[in-house]
Write a structure and sequence with these properties.
- The chain is mainly α.
- The chain has one domain.
- The chain is built from 14 helices and no strands.
- It is globular.
- It starts with a helix and ends with a helix.
């Protein structure tokens, strides 16, 4: 455990030194505050909770932004150390390769958690001062913030797999962008095309929900935009989870598996990698 803590602390210190934490937190805070105030402008007319609208807006933003941030944090975790010649030095210490992976993951997850909580917390604090929201709304906001960290963790783990597979840092960056496009953009376009072509003959609400669950970005969307009754009515997906018989636990399980499996795969690949 001491080795894991030391490696994690090293990653956090590097993140602070390289301004990663500050940059991510500032970026999330700017977007969150903008969406929180501008997005909630019409709510006084339509009697909608400003916080519920903010949750919808931030969830949609997180689907695109946090996967990219997670991949940028992790795509060169192994190959970057190898290119700089520091990987052999790191492994010369009394640490195992699985400890290196898990320690770096803990450090990157800490960076992501701090930045997300600070960034989204700024918007939450501002809304708490300027508007009144129910306890259910704040619970949904806290769940959105926590699940955003989990979504980022998924793509950090995927970045480790990429970094363990390639032997060129540029190739790792290109693959990372390709994975982001595939899971965040292309998958939904392909699913929409399938739904249009099917015309409702075989793909019902249950099938669509399961199609969403197997993609981490869409599992996050399902968790934050469909599983909470306070938010789903404003997100245009009300009743989707209820029709499919899915609970929030299914979305959380999908995101958790999407974190564990790539992390285990990266550990296995790194253990077999020749330096």
């Amino acid at each position: 455990m001491r080795a894991l803590a030391l490696i994690a602390r090293k990653e956090v210190q590097e993140g602070l030194r390289n301004r990663w934490v500050i940059a991510i937190a500032a970026l999330l805070a700017i977007f969150a505050l903008t969406l929180g105030f501008l997005g909630a402008t019409p709510t006084g007319v339509v009697k909608v909770s400003p916080l519920a609208v903010t949750i919808v807006s931030l969830s949609s933003l997180s689907i695109f932004l946090l996967p990219l941030i997670g991949l940028l944090l992790s795509y060169d975790t192994i190959i970057g150390e190898w290119d700089r010649g520091t990987l052999a030095l790191l492994l010369a210490y009394p640490v195992t390769r699985w400890q290196v992976i898990l320690g770096k993951f803990a450090g990157h997850l800490c960076i992501l958690t701090i930045a997300t909580v600070v960034g989204y917390g700024a918007a939450g604090t501002a809304l708490a001062i300027t508007s009144n929201a129910s306890a259910d709304a704040w619970t949904a906001f806290a769940a959105m913030t926590g699940s955003s960290v989990l979504l980022g963790a998924v793509f950090v783990a995927i970045g480790y797999v990429i970094s363990a597979l390639v032997r060129d840092r540029a190739a790792a960056g290109g693959i990372a962008i390709g994975v982001w496009l595939l899971l965040v953009v292309v998958y939904d376009m392909a699913m929409l095309g399938a739904l249009v072509a099917d015309q409702g003959r075989t793909l019902d609400a249950a099938a669509v929900s399961w199609m969403l669950l197997i993609n981490p970005a869409d599992a996050y969307r399902l968790l934050n935009l469909a599983d909470t009754s306070l938010v789903s009515a404003f997100a245009g997906v009300a009743g989707l989870s209820a029709q499919a018989g899915l609970s929030p636990a299914a979305s959380i399980a999908s995101l958790t598996l999407w974190t564990i499996v790539p992390l285990a795969t990266a550990t296995f690949l790194f253990a077999r990698r020749q330096l």
